[in-house]
Specification:
155 residues; mainly alpha
Length: 155
Amino acid sequence: MHCEQASALLVDYQHNELAAGERSALAQHLQHCADCNSELQSLLVMSRLLDHEQQPSPQARERFFAHLQQIAGNTGSNSGGQTGMVGWFRQLWLARPVTAFGYSAALLVVGLLSGQLLPPHALGVGPRPQQVPNADRIVQLCAAPVAPEQARPAL
């Protein structure tokens, strides 16, 4: 038996769910393979730890519910202990989803408009118009209406 086969059968071996032939072959492999035997021991330890059930203490339950009540009390007065503009904004944001959507839409519109209305060189992106050779000629050619039968001159 190979280690891959043995590894696949270890859980069933641990729960006594293997046929007699597979069980004896695996037991024989475990006697000679330290790695598979170590893996079986790890499974046994993990199984014992998972079977051991530990209940939380009554004090832990009381502290948990007291903490929940404290959080619920803070939410009513201000948002999680935050005061000022941040607390007001967070309370408004969470309490009114329509307001949150409206605010998000307004920010999107402001961002799009500022991106369209501000020239790129004002933001430090792209060349300034005086740095581009023949910039005035390019602007004239782009702005002038062209009849379909006219061809544009080469730059």
